[in-house]
Amino acid sequence: MVMAGCAPVARSPKVERALSDYFVGNIASAKERLIPLANKTDEDYVLNNLRLGSVALTDYDLQLAETAFYRAYEVINSVKVNDPARSAAAALVAEKLRVWKGEPFERAMANFYLGLVYYMQHDYANARAAFENSLFKLRDYGEGKLREDQYREQESNFTIAYVMLGRCWQKLGEEDKANDAFQRAAELRPNLRGLADPRVHEQSNVLLVVDFGTGPEKVTRETYSLVGFAPAPHEVGPIPPPRVTVNGSAVDLRGFDAPPIDLLAMAQDRRWQSIDTIRITKDVVGTGLIAAGAYQGMRRKPDYGSAAALIVAGALLKASSTADIRHWETLPRTTFILPLRLPPGRHDITVSFGSSRHLSQTWKGLIAPSTGDATYYIRISRLYSGPFVWPPARATGLDVALLPPESQPQR
Hints:
By secondary structure, the chain is an alpha+beta fold. 42% of the residues lie in helices and 14% in strands.
């Protein structure tokens, strides 16, 4: 019983197949598998919608991505999801019965991607709100009388949201607020002053948002009641800078080729964690009950009934202390924001990392508008390098109203 209780929480076979499809580049199949899971209102509702949002965004199905990320956003920001009955069941039986709402860095990324989808559709007011929500007052774990008023009030160092917030304020005609957002990004990350230059964003008509690497994984450590995040940044090495070529010519990325964030590092930072200690208490108490039961059974006049009861109670309590290691598997390690100024029309663009040709992605016919800007999302994957032709066949929610007639996408 103890051994069974100590096994980490596993993903369902349906989720495993969907994630496998996603990581090998079978995006359409992954999306089809995740849609029914994301519609099911269970304890994995938020997580499955975030998984679906990632897949839909990679597939340029912006309408579905918006729906999925917004569903997750609503529950993440709700304070009545884990009601007393569900919280009690999570405490006494298994933490996986609690509705998953993610670690603070996962919540920040959920808001960021929702804002990105709005921004790609030129809905700058809603994008601004989402980016702001990823920056401030990240709710801690737990609800109910003891913790309902506990907030994390500190400002985050979530640089990518500051940069995108600055772009939103520019689009909304609020130059002072835009400059404040860019200045804050530069203060937090002085090596990104080039990326935080308002003039760069005013002049750009193409924005590449590039996800690179694999995000942190929640794992058990020491005992199955303690969790942590792996790998640490030093275990996998530094993030390589991106290289961009447009129509075969290299683009100068000096000033904004450093990674704005590193989710592996953020996951190690306790400011971005919310670890519930109740499982540790249950583990310790369960061990004590088992020891007490063993003592009852080994006394000179053993009480086998009491011993058995204590051992079983301790085993059940230890079984319920198994750590919840659910996490958002489709997160990247970092997200680059690359503003470009290109001649209006179609362009072939390649984004690459390091010397491996497998860490690159090529798009043919990406459009640089004559007015406004166009935002393109690129998820770097070894098995998803292209070349791809713009626009994707399954793309939805794309606004081409700002594009010149000669550059309108042909389906």
